């Protein structure tokens, strides 16, 4: 198999990140291929797992999810079982958009989306702080979004 991330495939990926609904004919034209080889390359990228899935990006405010917060979480202990149970719990909450285990001051950082501040407060009180491994939660509320991107930098 040739290098799966050659220059043409990276170009395909950049275009698909901008517009996942682009037709194969338009994609092929933009990357300088005919449609059949372009489609073969896209299928190869899908089969290799480079393209994980296709999604629609929604406007949070227009679907009642206008508040984004970042919650820093500290665990009671830092053993593997605690981490596993925490991960299982947060995966069940649709409000948790992203969750990262971290080094440094806290043990995890979560990006949480809710309708408003009161909804977040209810989520924190009813769900997040009730996870048995959670010692404490500190929440940061961004004042303004300056950049939001879903495109990975491909050089």
Report on this model:
Keywords: DNA-binding, Transcription, Transcription regulation. One of its GO terms (molecular function) is sequence-specific DNA binding. It holds the Pfam family HTH_24. InterPro entries: ArsR-like_HTH (IPR011991), AsnC-type_HTH_dom (IPR000485), Dimeric_a/b-barrel (IPR011008), Tscrpt_reg_AsnC-like (IPR019888), Tscrpt_reg_AsnC/Lrp_C (IPR019887), Tscrpt_reg_HTH_AsnC-type_CS (IPR019885), WH-like_DNA-bd_sf (IPR036388), WH_DNA-bd_sf (IPR036390). This is Lrp/AsnC family transcriptional regulator. With 155 residues, the protein is an alpha+beta fold. 35% of the residues lie in helices and 19% in strands. The protein is built from 5 helices and 4 strands. The chain has helices spanning 7-18, 24-31, 35-47, 80-91, 117-126; strands at 67-75, 96-101, 108-114, 134-140. Strands 2-3-1-4 form a 4-stranded antiparallel beta sheet. A hairpin with a 6-residue loop joins strand 2 (96-101) and strand 3 (108-114). Helix 1 (7-18) packs across helix 2 and helix 2 packs across helix 3 (35-47). The longest helix has 13 residues, at 35-47. It is elongated, with a radius of gyration of 20 Å.
């Amino acid at each position: 198999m040739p290098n799966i991330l050659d220059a043409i495939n990276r170009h395909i990926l950049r275009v698909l990140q901008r517009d996942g609904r682009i037709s194969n004919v338009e994609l092929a034209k933009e990357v300088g291929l005919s449609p059949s080889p372009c489609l073969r390359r896209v299928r190869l990228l899908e089969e290799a797992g480079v393209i994980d899935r296709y999604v629609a990006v929604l406007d949070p405010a227009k679907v009642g999810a206008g508040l984004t917060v970042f919650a820093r979480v500290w665990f009671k202990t830092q053993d593997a079982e605690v981490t596993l149970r925490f991960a299982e719990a947060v995966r069940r909450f649709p409000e948790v958009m992203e969750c990262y285990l971290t080094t440094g001051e806290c043990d995890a950082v979560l990006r949480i989306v809710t309708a408003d501040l009161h909804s977040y407060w209810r989520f924190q009180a009813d769900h997040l702080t009730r996870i048995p491994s959670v010692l404490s939660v500190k929440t940061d509320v961004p004042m303004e979004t300056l950049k939001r991107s879903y495109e990975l930098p491909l050089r």
